[in-house]
Amino acid sequence: DAGVIQSPRHEVTEMGQEVTLRCKPISGHNSLFWYRQTMMRGLELLIYFNNNVPIDDSGMPEDRFSAKMPNASFSTLKIQPSEPRDSAVYFCASSRATSGRGYNEQFFGPGTRLTVL
Amino acid sequence: GQNIDQPTEMTATEGAIVQINCTYQTSGFNGLFWYQQHAGEAPTFLSYNVLDGLEEKGRFSSFLSRSKGYSYLLLKELQMKDSASYLCAVGSGGSYIPTFGRGTSLIVHP
Predict the structure, then answer these.
(1) Which of A42, A104, A111 sits opposite B97 (nearest CB)?
(2) How far apart are CA A49 and CA A31, in angstroms?
(3) Distance to chain B for A110, nearest Cα, Å
(4) Angstrom distance (rounded) from CA B104 to CA B82
(5) Pairwise CA distance, residues A5 & B47, whole Å
(6) Nearest to B42 among A101, A103, A110 (CB)
(7) Are residues A108 and B44, on separate chains, in Cβ contact within 8 Å?
(8) Using an 8 Å Cβ cutoff, are B90 and B99 in contact?
(9) Which of A 23-42 lie inside 8 A of B, CB atoms?
């Protein structure tokens, strides 16, 4: 199994530019999560999907952020326009929602390190 | 909301035992997770506790006391490769989606 795949691994952009982060979850997993990690705030949940449907986006910081999951094998997180305070590592994670154990063991992708100048 | 507290940093000696504590306040508790994260890498799942008591898995053990809102991760026979950040995360409500603490950076020295 290839694990969760994210691209790009690193992104450097200028303030005001649009940024699109991509994620391919593990095949067969039906929950997908987008997290942001910074030194100041730690690992924060931005949004998660069950069966391609957004369930909770209360962690999305503001309207500049949007996420889509058009099918079970692909999701995007878009920031438009980007700002320096968006600089962080963005992780995508997936899990099998009905694991039979009553909890979600999340499998994280390698992350995208975003720097907004 | 949830409030999760764990020490920022700990140091220990190779071969020793270290205990990383986590306290939390939440409503609708449905489990506590520990994740390990090496520098520059993704978090990886270590353990899940929903009942009081100790869960042992090799060199790592995790303990939970729901009445005290307290958990710890115990690492035995420390190795240099155990140097990493250890994230305590609490699940609540019906979704089991964990909320993560800030993590404890463990430094293992020879």
Answers:
(1) A104
(2) 5
(3) 5
(4) 12
(5) 23
(6) A110
(7) yes
(8) yes
(9) 33, 42
Which residues between 9 and 38 in chain B have a beta carbon less than 8 angstroms from any beta carbon of chain A? 30-31, 33
Long-range contacts of A59-66 (CB under 8 A, 24+ apart): none
- The residue among A46, A45, A11, A5 whose CA lies nearest residue A27 is A5
Q: Which residue has the tokens 């220990």?
A: B12
Helices H, strands E: what count in chain B? 0, 11
pLDDT digits (tens, 9 = 90+) for B75-93: 999 999 999 999 999 988 7
By C-alpha distance, which of A57, A48, A24 is closest to A104? Answer: A48
Residue A42 in tokens: 């730690």
Within an 8 Å CB–CB cutoff, is residue B100 touching chain A?
A: yes
Which pLDDT tens digits describe chain A residue by residue (117 residues)? 689 999 999 999 999 999 999 999 999 999 999 999 998 889 999 999 999 999 888 889 889 999 999 999 999 999 999 999 999 999 999 998 655 556 778 999 999 999 999
Spell out a b/e string for A20-45, using b for 16 or more CB atoms within 10 Å of the CB, else e.
ebbbbbbeebebbbbbbbeeeebbeb
- Please indicate whether, in this complex, the C-beta atoms of B42 and A109 are within 8 angstroms of each other: yes
Task: Say which residue the tokens 């692909």 belong to.
Answer: A74
* Main-chain phi, psi angles of A85, to 5 degrees: -70, -5
